[in-house]
Amino acid sequence: MQIQIERAVLSSILFDSERLDTLAELLTPEDFSYTPHKNIFFAMLELHRTDRPIDEEFILKLSTKARPITQEELLNVLTTSPIGDVKAYANEIRDASIKRKLHSFATKIQESTNDGNSSVQEIMDYLQSELYKITNVHESREFRNAKEVSEATMEYINKMKARGNHLLIGVDTGFVSLNKMTTGFGNGDLIIIAARPAMGKTTLVLNMVQKALDTGRGVAFFSLEMPAEQLMLRMLSAKTSIALQVLRVGNLQDDEWSNLSHAVDVMSKAPLFIDDNSILTIHQLRTKLRKIKSKHPEIGLAVIDYLQLMSGASNKDRHQEVSEISRGLKMIARELEIPIIALSQLNRSLEQRSDRRPILSDLRESGSIEQDADIILFVYRDAVYKQKDEKEKEEAAKKEGKEYKSTFVLKNEEEAEIIIGKQRNGPIGAVKLMFQKHCTRFMDISEANPSMQIVYENLSENTQTKFIPPQNDKVEAPII
């Protein structure tokens, strides 16, 4: 039966070669179960590619030792009646091919588990990679005509107008000033948040996660650097305004206990899902996200902390692995239609510059990160470097037997810059936030001091956003 279906499809191509345009998107030579049919279809594709006639004579000319085509097999195809609905028959061939591959996959599972030289992790990575190849090999999308795209675009514009929010169209970043620049994080976007250690990139993304939870979105958080309990401590500190150090030692006052109990009760009901396994590959991430998204459709954001800690699925060069990971993250974001935020480290070399504000070339093991990302945000706190510089000056003075009096004063609240290094659909520039150290929280500086206004000048791709500094250093931070 299967052989007859394959012959009918091949006969239909010989009868009308234009049908190959449609079938080439649905089938590959390996989808045919009968080897002579594989070879005939391969020859047809080659003739089509080189713009030659697809007929008996030219097909036989492409017969080789590796892919033999006999007159007898071709005659069997020619004597089979062509069919009208060739696409339906092609789908039958494709489905049968997938079933054969799944049967073969089951055999690979058995063989892999009997391989004493491979670790469980290596086996899992290999099998997930093979399954992904099976499920994605036939995925393709046809052209969409201008009418369809125009109508979909108009529907989107009307939807945005009905919302009545001219500032935010994607996931709320949690910061008004950043929303103005980005309009939020869109579905399918890959957002990279990068910084040197101690700048607060994990704190920033946790603040964003909290905002997403507060607005009813679910969040899947992959933490490769710290346990889930440490993440929750930071979120509770930001939510309650209780110092992180106080929470860590449990030295709370009565009113703080009450505040904490209420926050824990709220967080326990939040649609937050944390995976704190220290080993994660792109294939595992895809599998886990698909699974959690199917169980909890409310998930509207995924976070990876951080990208460079992810493992590659093969023994490629590290730059190639990171490129593969970043491309995979972008594909997953588009497939699941959610924004994915990935944290990233920066190269140490930027600290040798006089201006240590990050730029795109500072991305560590960048590969295709810059290319794949829709938005790249850099976290920069000048006070971190000032404190470091003062310590170095003090140590140098001690070595020389001199006394050094520093004018630098550590503050609980300090300015931070979120630099938009890349934005595919918007301006680049920077926004200023206030960083509250004791409760690990960023906040809008304009809320604390209205005199800090953002001034937009010609928001072209290469224009930096400038700021008018506040009239005084005193900033009263509101409780979030």
UniProtKB/TrEMBL annotation:
All residue ranges annotated as the SF4 helicase domain in the record: 164-449
Function: The main replicative DNA helicase, it participates in initiation and elongation during chromosome replication. Travels ahead of the DNA replisome, separating dsDNA into templates for DNA synthesis. A processive ATP-dependent 5'-3' DNA helicase it has DNA-dependent ATPase activity.
SUPFAM superfamilies (alphabetical): N-terminal domain of DnaB helicase, P-loop containing nucleoside triphosphate hydrolases
Protein name (record): Replicative DNA helicase
PANTHER family reported in the protein's UniProt record: REPLICATIVE DNA HELICASE (PTHR30153:SF2), REPLICATIVE DNA HELICASE DNAB (PTHR30153)
Domain of life where this protein originates: Bacteria
GO MF term set: DNA helicase activity; hydrolase activity
Species of origin: Helicobacter turcicus
UniProt key word Nuclease: no
EC number(s) recorded for this UniProt protein: 5.6.2.3
Catalytic activity line of the entry: ATP + H2O = ADP + phosphate + H(+)
Coiled-coil region: none
Keywords assigned by UniProt, alphabetized: ATP-binding, DNA replication, DNA-binding, Helicase, Hydrolase, Isomerase, Nucleotide-binding, Primosome
Gene3D superfamilies, A to Z: DNAb Helicase, Chain A, P-loop containing nucleotide triphosphate hydrolases
Family: Belongs to the helicase family. DnaB subfamily.
